[in-house]
Fold this sequence. Notes:
A hairpin with a 3-residue loop joins strand 4 (51-57) and strand 5. The protein has a single domain, classed as Double Stranded RNA Binding Domain, CATH 3.30.160. It is globular and about 35 Å long. The chain is 42% helix and 36% strand. A 5-stranded antiparallel sheet has the order 1-5-4-3-2. It starts with a strand and ends with a helix. It is built from 3 helices and 5 strands; from the N terminus they run E-H-E-E-E-E-H-H. The protein is of the alpha+beta class.
Amino acid sequence: MGKKISVTRKHSLGVDVASQKLNDLAGQFAEKYGVKADIRGPRAQFSGKGVEGNVQVTADSVTVNLELGLLLGALSGKIEDGVQRQLEKHFA
């Protein structure tokens, strides 16, 4: 793997609501990007062609950690911006 991305977003949703949002988003991402998602409460593991990562939800924040392969690493800036936009949209 190549480039690493880590994005944290504060929220005031509480762990239960944020975990439900994580569950909803993980399903959407898995379908849209063809990644495998293993969701266990406030945690999710992702893997797919050229990407691995995890998401951790707490009572007041959500953190996304991704490790991109060589090809996706070239798009890391756009991918990081997209992750930030999605977190702002769903965890505001």
